[in-house]
Amino acid sequence: MRALAKTERASGLSLVEVPKPTPGPGEVLVRVEAASICGTDLHIYKWDAWAQGRIRPPLITGHEFSGVVEAVGPGVRRPQVGDHVSLESHVVCHTCPACRVGNAHVCLNTEILGVDRDGGFAEYVVVPAENAWVNPKELPFEVGAILEPFGNAVHTVFAGSGVSGRSVLITGAGPIGLMATLVARASGAGPILVTDVNPYRLDFARRLGADRVINPLEEDPVAVAREMTGGGVEVLLEFSGNERAIHQGLSALLPGGEARILGIPSDPIRFDLAGELVMRGVTLFGIAGRRLWRTWIEGTALVYSGRVDLTPLITHRLPMSRYQEAFELLASGRAVKVILDPKA
Ligand code: NAD
Ligand code: ZN
Ligand code: ZN
């Protein structure tokens, strides 16, 4: 089978021919129908400091994908052959103390598909049966492929006290920030303010239902947020990983508000703990992955019912053989979700 792999400790990826894997006990073989590129894949492609510390080649990349169950290993009852599935990318142990208290999304032994073990930029992939989430057959594969990052957005928006009836500031209108805009809108948040430094993405946020978009290079998001809400937003949803945006987001919060942070800064950042958090009574949530499996239940309820339509976020579709073009497109910032067809 064909796969897109990191074969050496260097930048770039290679299209390789490798044997089709066989599912062992408790595993399933998935024929991949659509895969999507994530910012993490770009880090692996560029071979930055994070990738150098984490990735052990040879590795088949890709953790956002969907497909059809082609075979099941011994002992697997669900899913069944022929089921259409999306994949949860975190493989968890179910036995560590975090798993045992119901926090498997922060399992101490987490392995991520396409990062720590072979992923879905391939014609076929073997995964633990429980990682395959069964979708209705009418759901387009390309939408199925982006349910994993969508789950990041759902987890962030629904954490803490949610967003219903609350003013919200979304920092960073990348794919996940844009998905959060859709979820916030569908969940009765208002007003919804969105910041980004990229005009192409701000335009997307406006079309997807943001009440106000702000380019921090042109105006002050804190002043706009305070003016629109009479004091500050109740909820900050952080998806930029940008230090400046994080400080601006915290300043734009109404005292007593909630900051939910999913964005990952490339370097450690400094906080004025007392001034930004303690004395303003802010509750801060670190948001990792998706809650297993509550986030999948909540997210798919929004998508299957049509309350959230993810199709406008899919801006490009390319055969996997044109992966270099696809990665460059995403890196340019003039794309949201780029879908690869592993068969082409
Ligand atoms: P992305 O890089 O495409 O989006 C980030 C956006 O932030 C970009 O559109 C960028 O223009 C914008 N931005 C940069 N500087 C800004 C500023 N000063 N103010 C406002 N916006 C600014 O990433 P994504 O795929 O949407 O993911 C969002 C973030 O979440 C990334 O940091 C990613 O690493 C992180 N992430 C975390 C988890 C987790 O489990 N915690 C999972 C997936 C992704
Ligand atoms: Zn990802
Ligand atoms: Zn565990």
Characterization of this structure:
- It is a single chain.
- The chain has 344 residues and is an alpha/beta fold.
- The chain has two domains: 2-146 and 310-341, Quinone Oxidoreductase, Chain A, domain 1; 153-286, Rossmann fold (3-Layer(aba) Sandwich), CATH 3.40.50.
- The chain contains twelve helices and 18 strands.
- It has helices at 39-46, 49-54, 97-100, 141-145, 147-158, 175-186, 199-208, 221-229, 243-252, 273-277, 294-304, 323-332; strands spanning 2-6, 14-17, 27-36, 59-60, 64-72, 84-87, 90-91, 111-112, 124-128, 132-135, 168-171, 192-195, 212-214, 233-238, 253-261, 283-286, 314-319, 337-341.
- The strands form four sheets. Strands 3, 5, 6, 9, 10, 17 and 18 form a seven-stranded mixed sheet that branches. A six-stranded parallel sheet has the order 13-12-11-14-15-16, with helices on both faces.
- Helix 10 (273-277) links the parallel strand 15 and strand 16.
- The longest helix is centred in the middle third of the chain and has 12 residues, at 147-158.
- The chain is globular and about 60 Å long.
- The mean pLDDT is 98.
- The chain binds nicotinamide-adenine-dinucleotide and zinc ion (2 copies).
